[in-house]
Specification:
The chain is an alpha/beta fold. The protein contains 8 helices and 7 strands; from the N terminus they run H-H-E-E-H-H-E-H-H-E-H-E-E-H-E. The strands form 2 sheets. Strands 1-2-7-6-3 form a 5-stranded mixed beta sheet. A two-stranded antiparallel sheet has the order 4-5. Helix 8 links the parallel strand 6 and strand 7.
């Protein structure tokens, strides 16, 4: 098996899930180049306040080369990147959101997107982060509509309108009085996370905090 892995690595060199450069077999973290990359967030820049969520902790800027790697994770059938991303996200949660949640969940994609893509990237991130945190990722939200991709909309107002009313809480009794941690991949305007958080709050959640792998420099919830 080790010989086979060596041959496969030679023919198809593994890529670092953070920069897309040549990585190492079984790599579960940033490569040496990425460990000191300028896209990592610290301090005040790593925390964004929301309207319906208290705050969102973000691990990195959504900028190159990480931007291309995350797009590969979402759109190019690279679900294995979730292990490395989830570990980084778990550390971000430990740093900026300690003791602030009872339940850990994620912002789901629509059934149509799930069928087309084959996996829900936010769910994978949540599951991997939860494993590192010794918690369980539980499904609390459902997406009932298939709206336009947020990335296709240039203006914040369009993004807020695009996600209005698209989420439901199938079992409100599971969230009543609970503090929820919502995980997603990217924070841009905050529209998606705020709508998901608003839905949970209306269903009885006591508080919602969030965590994302990336945030865009233009984030202004």
């Amino acid at each position: 098996m080790a010989l086979l892995r060596s041959v496969l690595d030679l023919l198809y060199p593994p890529k670092c899930p953070f920069c897309g450069g040549t990585g190492t077999s079984g790599q579960t973290g940033p490569c040496p180049r990425c460990q000191d990359a300028p896209f990592w967030l610290e301090g005040g820049q790593a925390v964004v306040k929301g309207r319906d969520f208290v705050r969102c902790a973000c691990a990195a800027w959504y900028q190159e080369p990480l931007r291309t790697a995350v797009k590969r994770f979402k759109f190019s059938n690279q679900p294995q990147y979730a292990a490395a991303y989830g570990a980084v996200l778990a550390q971000t949660i430990r740093t900026y959101l300690p003791g602030s949640y009872d339940l850990l969940s994620w912002v789901p994609v629509s059934p149509a997107t799930l069928k087309h893509r084959g996996y829900d990237q936010a769910r994978l991130l949540a599951q991997e982060a939860a494993q590192v945190l010794n918690r369980e990722a539980v499904p609390l939200l459902a997406k009932t509509g298939h709206n336009r991709p947020q990335s296709s909309l240039a203006h914040g107002e369009q993004r807020w309108k695009n996600v209005a009313g698209v989420y439901t809480v199938p079992h409100p009794e599971e969230v009543t009085g609970q503090r929820i941690l919502l995980i997603d991949d990217i924070l841009t305007t905050g529209a998606t996370l705020n709508e998901a958080a608003r839905t949970l709050r209306q269903a009885g959640a006591a508080q919602v905090v969030c965590a994302t792998l990336c945030r865009t420099p233009s984030t202004d919830p």
